[in-house]
User: Which sequence fits this backbone?
């Protein structure tokens, strides 16, 4: 497998060199460059015949750097791995399962090994989207990826496949054959606080009641003055959600909208009734340790010129602030310089859960997908 990287910024233009033949381009950028028709035409001209998959972000990861409003491009060339692409439209959360099923049906095949998926970040229920994909591919196919971002604004997000990125899209690539190797890892580093409560009323990804009380009221009570900044401030106070009998399979959920009239909160993924929920908050050192933990989980047995795609949550970026590069550097320390790093800050992360090896939607985590090919030098 060959990997070459290039970067566009408003100040310097293009740097690096990814020109030439490629099977797959991963492009992560700010809203301006990722929706620019001329940019996509330039990528297609420089890499004729390559599949181009990309999305808008809450920040771009390029090597050990974290940037904003740039365009990070990684060109991948495979020796013995087949690549196919698929896309679907999604208007709102209710259409998530159907869209996922379209993707899964289009990419499904006996030799399918892994899917990397990008989705609109504000119109989708990520849990239902993944469930739809899995309904066609089964649980043995590794599914990773993330939900597109829009900085800290939570406005319009964009996904593109072989054409300029636009809202309401889901796109994915499938990798096929026995040569492809994939590693994956996911970890958070958040600390719980406050009492553990039961989800007593919810519908899909909308949470209405905790312990029989309005969920939004309880959440605001614990946030105190930080509640004035909702929903943005919720990025700093996610919820730990788990089945009471399976605490080791806990997921982290982040609020994407609040409903003052119904005292409810909408999350990026499902909030099942009967599950337990507990507030979480961040600690700088623990978040960086979580990123390193995800990297250790994802390391491939065969060393080589691999590519690691990092999808981390925008909430982590907001909390870490000027220290944000520390979590990327912690990942680089684990992999070493031979592994190219790319990725973005997202509104949701897709990765298998370490406890079940079954793909889930995560929030507030660092998730890592490592790609390599057997026999590659």
Assistant:
């Amino acid at each position: 497998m060959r990997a070459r990287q290039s970067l566009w910024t408003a100040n310097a233009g293009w740097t690096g060199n990814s020109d030439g033949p490629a099977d797959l381009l991963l492009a992560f950028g700010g809203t301006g460059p990722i929706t620019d028709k001329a940019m996509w035409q330039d990528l297609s001209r420089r890499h004729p015949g390559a599949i181009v998959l990309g999305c808008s972000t809450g920040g771009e990861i390029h090597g050990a750097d974290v940037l904003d409003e740039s365009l990070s491009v990684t060109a991948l060339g495979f020796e013995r791995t087949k690549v196919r692409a698929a896309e679907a439209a999604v208007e709102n959360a209710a259409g998530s399962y159907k869209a996922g099923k379209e993707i899964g049906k289009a990419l499904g095949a006996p030799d399918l090994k892994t899917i990397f998926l990008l989705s609109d970040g504000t119109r989708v229920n990520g849990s239902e989207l993944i469930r739809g994909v899995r309904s066609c591919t089964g649980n043995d196919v590794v599914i990773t990826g993330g939900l597109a971002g829009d900085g800290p604004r939570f406005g319009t997000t964009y996904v593109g496949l072989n054409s300029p990125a636009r809202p309401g899209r889901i796109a994915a690539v499938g990798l096929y054959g026995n040569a492809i190797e994939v590693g994956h890892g996911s970890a958070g580093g958040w600390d719980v606080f406050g009492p553990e409560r039961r989800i007593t009323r919810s519908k899909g990804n909308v949470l209405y009641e905790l312990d029989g009380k309005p969920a939004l009221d309880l959440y605001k009570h614990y946030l105190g003055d930080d509640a004035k900044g909702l929903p943005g401030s919720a990025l700093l106070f996610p919820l730990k959600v788990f089945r009471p009998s399976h605490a080791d399979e806990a997921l982290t959920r982040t609020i994407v909208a609040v409903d003052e009239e119904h005292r409810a909160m909408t999350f990026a993924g499902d909030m099942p009734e009967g599950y337990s929920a507990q507030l979480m908050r961040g600690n700088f050192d623990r978040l960086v340790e979580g990123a390193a933990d995800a990297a250790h989980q994802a390391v491939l047995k065969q060393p080589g010129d691999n590519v690691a795609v990092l999808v981390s949550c925008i909430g982590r970026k907001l909390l870490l602030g000027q220290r944000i590069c520390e979590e990327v550097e912690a990942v680089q320390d684990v992999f070493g310089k031979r592994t190219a790093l790319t990725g973005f800050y997202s509104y949701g992360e897709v990765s298998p859960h370490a406890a079940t090896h079954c793909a889930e939607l995560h929030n507030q985590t660092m998730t890592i997908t490592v790609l390599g090919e057997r026999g590659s030098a």
Observations:
- The chain has a mean pLDDT of 92.
- The two ends are 8 Å apart (CA to CA).
- Residues 284-298 form the longest helix (15 residues).
- The chain has two domains: 2-187+285-373, 191-281.
